[in-house]
Give the backbone structure.
Amino acid sequence: MTRQDIPENPPVTPRVNRIEKRQQREELIVQRAGELIAQYGFFELKMSDLAQACDISVGTLYAHFASKEDLLLGLAITAGQKRARFFGHARAHDGSAMEKFIVASLLDIRFSLEHPEWFEAEYLALAPSIWTRATPSHHQSQLAEVGRITEMFQSFLSAAADELGISHDVIARTRNLNLGSWGLSFGMNALAMSEITDRHYGAELRNNAIDIFCDSLADLLAGAGWHVDDARQIVRDLAARYAELSGDAT
């Protein structure tokens, strides 16, 4: 065999990592599911329609999400990841630890109001009828995502112990405050999106959710020991800087 007869090496084509390809497909599924849920609602979503929207087979869809409960938890996890990236503004805030906590709380409610479809996924995923039917791996991923966000808020409050006048039981007291502020934010979002409140408040709550939240958060923090002049104004000033609805919170 002459040199000319030796075939050239075939061109090397990069192989897409299977894990990376699976992750990309999963991200597409979650994205399309979010779009369909925003349009039709979660309970009207059909897995066959979602598979068609993703240009994949139903079998492939179920290989990623074994049930609608798994899919909902996948949406909640993605929502948490988007929300967590948004909190970078709080970490970068040029103020005290207490102000960072307030900014994070304001960003939290702003994200939910701007993306009600993501908040709805998080809200529904907390129901025992959902997570108890999901696969353990998806449930553990959901808990881990919530845990990371909770720890960030906790770190701000722990660093703000002096501002709160806490000299003992710092962890226990700040954990309670963290839980209380979370309940306030979560409840305000749920009420703002519910038509039930219209009977009592009209459109006031929905249209003024951030202003109402500001005063409620300031009162909660003042009651917990944050003694500053005009707490409500401080929170409202931070809201004017960080919480004006823009339609783009990602």
